[in-house]
Amino acid sequence: MPFLYDLLLKVIRPIVDKWPLPQIEEGGVYIHSASLGEVNAISPFIRLIKQRHPEIPIFLSTFTETGYKRAHDLFGEDVPVGRFPFDIKDKLDDFFRRGNFRALLIVETELWPNLILTAKKYGVPIFLVNARLSPRTLRRYRVLKSKFSSLLSLFKLILAQSETDRKRYLYLGAPPERVKVTGSLKFDLMNEEVDPPENFKVNFRNLVVFGSVRPKEEQPILHAIAHLLRISPDAYFVIAPRHIDRVQAIRKFLDSKRIPYSLRTSGEIRGRITILDTLGELRNFYGVADVAFVGGTLAPYGGHNLVEPAILGVPVIFGPHYFNTPDAARGLLKAGGALLVRKEEDLEKTIITLLKDEDLRQRVGEKARKYVLSQRGVSEKIYREILPYITSE
Questions:
Q1: Which of 57, 77, 240, 264 makes a 20 to 30 Å CA pair with 317?
Q2: How far is residue 291's CA from residue 162's CA, in Å, rounded to a whole number?
Q3: Helix, strand or coil for residue 107?
Q4: 358: annotated active-site residue
Q5: Which one of 3.30.930.10, 3.40.50.11720, 3.40.50.620, 3.40.50.720 gives the CATH number of domain 7-184+376-390?
Q6: What integer pLDDT is reported at residue 145 of this predicted model?
Q7: What pTM was estimated for this model as a whole?
């Protein structure tokens, strides 16, 4: 395995060498946030640090092009951003030598060996923040459990999203006294209001949004919609596939059933279905929804962001496969802000129940919103934990 890892780094090396050297101001905090989702998640914490300690520079590295662009869009020139050099030793050595960092914060699950070892070499305290471990990642990491145990022992603190994540890090060998649950930063990220989608007006009373739909759950969802179209004449449906390349498959099914629909990019309203073939608009549609189903949960994908519709006061429906977000799912269910469905028939019945009972929709939606609000303050908790290491306070 180490041989294959070193070989991978050699293959990637020519690409990394072409990247420009990032701007790094000495004496700051280095934050590594892999991709778009992690950059978004850590943004409230970065703003908190910039507000309370403007004298402390922050350097942010990202792994993906979308994450890199998002970081620039969020922070402009306030936070220098660089491309993470794929764990190449001498490149990282250059980062730490120029940066003289006071702390390294790694977001979520980025356990890059050379990054961690280089920070240790330069005496930089290391933190894993908003830490999570999916079952899939845990299965990969446990093959090299002893290696990861050694790496995890180098962290000052591992601040986990949930009790489930804490237990998974302990299983990999993290020191128990250094693993704490501070919650998920996604709760701090969401606003209670969102702009409605532009140029979208329908003359129907009830809007149901199916968000982040994955391939293996398309058929049951589309069958449910076909039935709901017949029995709920005042309902309208928005389907948002998780990946745009699934739009054609959804269109093919609807065409085969001769069900009229519109593409969001067409700018027209045809029939009672819109397929969301754009990026970045799902939350806007959640904002005008009466009911929201969150995908990746009817089939074993692990689920997607339940907080997005919940914070907007929309009753949330999801399936049994929520292992990527177990604590948020269980919290919403316990608070009465979400409804669990196990199969296509349950999905139809639950949607019909909510569409027919406006008072029930409002009660469930309000409980969803209150649950999310009760979980806020994660940025503050993380800040308090690392404060002694980044300042003299």
A1: 264
A2: 27
A3: strand
A4: no
A5: 3.40.50.11720
A6: 87
A7: 0.85
